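Example 3.2
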Amino acid sequence: MAELDFLPLNKIYYDGEAIGFPLGGFLRGKYHDSEWQGIEKSSLRKPLESASEFFKIEQGTVYLTVRGREPYYQGNRIADVSVPFTSSIGYHPKCKSKCFYIYVNREEIMIRLLAEAVKNRDSRFEIGEFSDLVAENRITENLPWVIEEFAKEEKGFITFVTSFAPSETVYSAEHKGRTLIRMKMNPAEIIRRSEPFTSPLGSRIHGINKLAYAGYSCGIVLSPIAFFENWEEVYSEFFDILEATLCDDVKSNGTVEIVFDKNSPALKSKKIEAAEFLIKQSSEKLPLMKIVDIR
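Structure, written as tokens:
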């Protein structure tokens, strides 16, 4: 399932200043038939852990707002700094359920990010921790702009994780080798059960291969590792698929992250055993890919 070019929206909440920004104005025109409602700006509550949660609920609600100058904070092993960028998932009192926040002041956010990149020229910035920027792109068409604007200074690197095959505009963006895109991977049945409405395994593999052909740095994120009867057999077959279908560029230069489900009741007793098994599978079937994080 390739990324759709357009995601319909039923209702759009916005705070007063949001539609005055170029991205806000663009969305006002693109979604002119949607219901628009201005509301008082509210502080963002704790985001969800997975942007794909947005696509599991009844779709159609977003909240346009302006992001302040919240401090950057330390990233995980794949990134030096985590930078909340143009979207996140969270709650708003006016939303019946989880809301998709879009920060429309992308120019201000980018100026600050580029200034940080100039000071730390080899740093890698995680810009998609609270959202899936490829999913957001279905609404904003924002991602190629982000990639190209960051690449202009040719300082630092940006990275994000996605569960979707990108659009053609992402493949063709002038990234100048400054963007690392990591594709979430899991056995096909786990994707079908735990991530409905996201791209299936075959589309994700096709997407990461196409990104590699377009010159992007690429990685895979095995997440979340699930435990069930015969899980070792299922994951072994999954690694066989990756070995047979990932292109040589990904297998030679890509990274691997292994992320366990924090809510799994069997986590404590199985994590070490599972980590050893998955490291062994990766080392045997994807020997040139570098394991950079296990968490």
